[in-house]
Amino acid sequence: MTDPARPVRVAIIGAGNIAETCHLPALRAQNTPVETVAVLDVDIDRARAFAERWEIPAAYGDLEEMLEETRADLAIVCTPPIAHRDAIIACLQRGVSVWCEKPPTLSLAEYDEIAAHEGTDGPYVSYVFQHRFGSAARALREHIRTGTLGAPLVGICHTLWYRNDAYYEVPWRGKWATEGGGPTMGHGIHQMDLMLALMGEWTEVRAAAGTLARDVETEDASMAIVRFASGAMVSMVNSVLSPRETSYLRFDFPEATVELTHLYGYDNTDWTWTPAPHRAEDTAADLGAPELDEASSHTAQLRHLLEDLRAGRRPEASGDDGRRVLGFIAALYESAATGRPVTAPPGPENPYYRSMSGALDTSTEKETVRV
Questions:
Q1: Which candidate in 83, 197, 205, 222 could, as Cys together with 79 as Cys, close a disulfide (CB 3.0–4.6 Å)?
Q2: Does pTM top 0.70 for this prediction?
Q3: Is the pLDDT of residue 95 over 90?
């Protein structure tokens, strides 16, 4: 887009809860000109009701028709994971950039298939990893890059959430073929993405997973020990069985411990900056806690995405940067299933490349599910 005054034309694909509570408010909060031109859903009545609530001019039940008629610049995909691939590819083939909800795809194979439809200069597809975009995370990433706190040594990455049996009555949840995995894939992915975005490349994962209490195909809890190229070690836990819910990240450096305790999003007050004993008199500001206080949010990530779209740049959380956490999750599942350490994301010859369950063929299983 070369005209900074022209509104970015946005279409919403999927008129469910995530679009209602996160994406439309994020669009309305932007300072740059944005125009929501259409909403699409397989349930046309739901799409029309959504359009009426948000004063969107058009509602559709057919994706190709919407893409043909709206001339959107950006499509936001808010469907269940099983529907991500086809919707994204259809948009890219029409020259429409995409912002897609997590998890990006059901497998690395799907991710790479989608990436092949991106152009060298766009359109691009990026994914919703909004926890990277709060001011404290941005500041900490810069400290790690420059070494102002020393090299990271020990970390903790916990997503301890609670989902009851009723949550899994939604037909696509808790199934490998339609959700792609359990809390490792659908819940802890945000904390793990932030950890990986901060800590850099991982070199080994040793994991265990179990289905302890929920009637699901996938796991309902997983644990892992992760080594990074820097030498750092991180403990990870993902759970939907934890009544006292918390999302917790901890980074121990020679100069300080930096902690984040929140649930579904944070601002600067959720971070704690603790000096090492030899710096006991230092304040959080002395350690580099940011003055700017921007919360992690869809709004913050979308602002960066729109800036990149207007500039013709590949956005953050796309391409290899968006793939990193998916490759890590596939390796975690492989380690949990085989009982062996895994030192790299699975490649095309590995069954975990095609399915997080390691199934050789999930096409028949997918055909039995209707979303």
A1: 83
A2: yes
A3: yes
